[in-house]
């Protein structure tokens, strides 16, 4: 199943929302939108595409109503989610965690384009497995640019066959938080100040707290 969501935040009016497939979006406050599952997704073979546009002078807080649970399909283990974020105003993206259940494989790609005096906060939380499950796999990439110039290229893998999955260390959970242009803030893990502005905080461990 292909699920597509478009959210456009404009100054002085409520966000415009268009949805197709198993993922819906609902405006819950003047500048807040929650993503809501309208069907069981992502299953193996599913693709989720979310596009967010925040115009100059606009503010958007994007959340999810519940955790995203990636499940294996009958004939395909892998699902995908792509996020295209075009920000000229203020974006705060902090969904509930993504849980990689059973033997599923889930691949996430986020592309963030910042323009002008924009600000952004993006937090991503991932857990491999429900209780007593450890065999899933997740790969996440984040590409961020400011006015067309590179800000960050970041990739993390977790789970079975991940680069960091070995006898000495096998993390099954991670938290990543990018902020721009803020360089110092309280966040879980290690905070790295970026050369072009902003900061990236990362943490890995066995379970999300």
Mean pLDDT: 96
Helix content: under 10%
Indicate the multimeric state.
Answer: single chain
Shape: globular
Number of strands: 17
Would you identify the regions where 5 or more consecutive residues have pLDDT less than 50?
Answer: none
Number of domains: 1
Give the count of helical stretches. Answer: 0
- Terminal CA distance: 32 Å
Note the main sheet: 10 strands, mixed
In sequence order, what are the helices and strands, one letter per element?
A: EEEEEEEEEEEEEEEEE
Beta-strand residue fraction? over 45%
SSE class? mainly beta
**C-alpha Rg (nearest Å):** 17 Å
List the helices and strands and how they pair.
Blueprint: E1 2-9, E2 16-20, E3 23-29, E4 32-37, E5 47-54, E6 59-64, E7 68-70, E8 78-87, E9 90-93, E10 98-100, E11 105-114, E12 119-128, E13 137-146, E14 149-159, E15 173-180, E16 190-193, E17 199-205
Parallel strand pairs: 1-5, 4-6, 5-8, 6-9, 7-10, 8-11, 9-12, 10-12, 11-13
Antiparallel strand pairs: 1-2, 3-4, 12-15, 13-14, 15-17, 16-17
Can you walk me through this structure?
- The protein has 209 residues and is mainly β.
- It has one domain.
- The chain has strands at residues 2-9, 16-20, 23-29, 32-37, 47-54, 59-64, 68-70, 78-87, 90-93, 98-100, 105-114, 119-128, 137-146, 149-159, 173-180, 190-193, 199-205.
- Strands 3, 4, 6, 7, 9, 10, 12, 15, 16 and 17 form a ten-stranded mixed β-sheet that branches. Strands 2-1-5-8-11-13-14 form a seven-stranded mixed β-sheet, with no helix packed on it.
- The radius of gyration is 17 Å and the shape is globular.
- The model has no long low-confidence stretch (mean pLDDT 96).
């Amino acid at each position: 199943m292909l699920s597509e969501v478009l959210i456009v935040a404009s100054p002085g009016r409520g966000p415009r929302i268009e949805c197709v497939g198993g993922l819906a979006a609902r405006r819950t406050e003047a500048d807040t939108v929650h993503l809501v599952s309208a069907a069981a997704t992502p299953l193996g073979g599913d693709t989720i595409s979310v596009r967010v546009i925040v115009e100059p002078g606009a503010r958007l807080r994007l959340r999810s109503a519940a955790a995203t649970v990636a499940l294996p399909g009958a004939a395909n283990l892998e699902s995908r989610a792509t996020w295209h974020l075009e920000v000229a105003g203020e974006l705060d993206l902090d969904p509930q965690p993504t849980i990689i259940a059973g033997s599923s494989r889930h691949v996430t790609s986020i592309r963030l384009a910042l323009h002008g005096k924009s600000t952004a906060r993006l937090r991503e939380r991932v857990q491999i497995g429900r209780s007593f499950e450890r065999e899933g796999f997740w790969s996440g990439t984040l590409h961020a640019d400011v006015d067309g110039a590179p800000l960050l290229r970041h990739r993390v893998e977790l789970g079975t066959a991940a680069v960091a999955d070995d006898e000495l260390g096998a993390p099954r959970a991670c938290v990543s938080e990018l902020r721009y242009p803020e360089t110092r803030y309280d966040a879980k893990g290690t905070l790295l100040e970026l050369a072009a502005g902003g900061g990236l905080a990362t943490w890995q461990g066995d379970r999300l707290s």
